[in-house]
């Protein structure tokens, strides 16, 4: 639970968004850089990543956010800032996405409540793909700035 004088909240959002045209471009160095960018964006906006998973053509992320950030604003930060940096840093992406749009329009967002946090965590963890599996924020390997495993 987050705390500011006279305010307490636990707002968690599960987001999913796809690459434009469903191109499978999120692997290797591109996926690693995307993970770092999402961590940076969350840190700057006082959000906490609870769990995440980068797939070849889409991203799942469960974030805890302060009450003053709307779900739409969170999506704007996550998608907009990551797309801008990724297209600037990876020329191969600029060739595929000549219109400067890495992400497809729209996104899925749900709050924790209708289903338990554990159900969403398990859903994110259990994503499978025949091509390749690329997990992000493995709590056994990645540590937050405080030294605590992410996702605990």
Folded structure, characterized:
The chain has four helices and seven strands; from the N terminus they run E-E-E-H-E-E-H-H-E-H-E. The longest helix is centred in the middle third of the chain and has 19 residues, at 71-89. It has a single domain, classed as Alpha-Beta Plaits, CATH 3.30.70. A hairpin with a 3-residue loop joins strand 4 (48-54) and strand 5 (58-65). The protein has helices spanning 28-44, 71-89, 91-96, 117-125; strands spanning 2-4, 7-9, 11-18, 48-54, 58-65, 108-111, 135-136. It is α+β, with helices and mostly antiparallel strands.
Q: In terms of topology, how is this protein built?
A:
Layout: E1 2-4, E2 7-9, E3 11-18, H1 28-44, E4 48-54, E5 58-65, H2 71-89, H3 91-96, E6 108-111, H4 117-125, E7 135-136
Antiparallel strand pairs: 1-2, 3-5, 3-6, 4-5, 4-7
Helix pairs in contact: 1-2
Quick summary of this structure?
This protein has four helices and seven strands, in the order βββαββααβαβ.
């Amino acid at each position: 639970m987050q705390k500011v004088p006279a305010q307490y909240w636990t707002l968690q959002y599960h987001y999913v968004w796809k690459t434009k045209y469903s191109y499978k471009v999120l692997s290797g160095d591109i996926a690693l850089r995307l993970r770092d960018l999402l961590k940076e964006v969350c840190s700057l906006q006082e959000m906490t990543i609870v769990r995440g998973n980068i797939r070849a053509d889409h991203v799942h992320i469960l974030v805890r956010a302060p009450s003053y950030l709307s779900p739409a604003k969170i999506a704007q930060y996550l998608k907009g800032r990551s797309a801008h940096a990724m297209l600037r840093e990876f020329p191969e992406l600029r060739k595929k996405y000549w219109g400067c749009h890495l992400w497809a329009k729209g996104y899925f967002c749900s709050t924790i409540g209708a289903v338990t946090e554990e159900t969403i965590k398990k859903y994110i963890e259990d994503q499978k793909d025949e091509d390749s599996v690329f997990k992000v924020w493995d709590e056994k390997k990645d540590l937050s700035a405080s030294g605590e495993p992410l996702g605990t």
